[in-house]
């Protein structure tokens, strides 16, 4: 943030966005995330199991349908693990964006009554989702070992894919949160967009199964790029990379640029709307 112009830095450090003390802001964000995480896992007897049940049940149903019924994944090495990992990553993406959508409205009492940095709310949602992803990835790695996947140097780059997905989801969350305060129709619109995104992203299938006529266009989706690279780095070093699917290394700048744009635009829009959020709730 130090490289930004002084006027923009002052705007972001206003009480409405991150407050006057960055250390206090990060401590507050972390406290909100940890509190939500504890409530989710320790509020029931089988907290972790219930959280893990959703992606596992979805994985089980889809795996049976696409291997035994549709015969889609039998030609893809480690298809079951690819499907499970894709679902876990998609669950993180949806949990961050859907949670951010209504987070300011859910914290209405807090935002109205206290001098509270607004940005801490959507960032705590993203951080809680990241905690959940870390827990769910334990099951993914156990499944990988059981499936016979051999660890290789590509695994060391896997966390960078999670960072890229987190940047994208957080940027969209910062955009959706103030939009929902002003326009409640954003909720059903985003729900439809997420359903479309699920089916046009290579979750149920791999990217090289797309028809060549639309392959490059669909691969420009940042989520598709993350999942394609995940397959290459985590499961199968012989699988095509995002550059292979797009046809050029330079075209990889498109999903990267869209990710950066989503974060920067989301941060800018949130900063612009922050002073009016409490009054519009």
Give a structural overview.
By secondary structure, this protein is mainly alpha-helical. The protein has one domain (13-280). It has helices spanning 6-12, 22-42, 47-69, 79-101, 103-106, 108-113, 120-147, 158-182, 186-200, 212-219, 222-235, 242-246, 253-273, 277-280. Mean pLDDT is 83; it is low at 1-5 and 7-13.
Topology readout:
Elements: H1 6-12, H2 22-42, H3 47-69, H4 79-101, H5 103-106, H6 108-113, H7 120-147, H8 158-182, H9 186-200, H10 212-219, H11 222-235, H12 242-246, H13 253-273, H14 277-280
What is the percentage of strand-forming residues? under 5%
Radius of gyration: 20 Å
Class from secondary-structure proportions:
mainly alpha
Strand and helix order? HHHHHHHHHHHHHH
The number of distinct helices, counting runs of at least 4 residues, comes to 14
- How far the N terminus sits from the C terminus, by CA atoms, comes to 29 Å
- When the domains are counted, the total is 1
General shape = globular
Helix content: over 70%
Question: Roughly what is the average pLDDT, rounded to an integer?
Answer: 83
Number of strands: 0
Main beta sheet: none
Q: Name the poorly predicted regions.
A: 1-5, 7-13
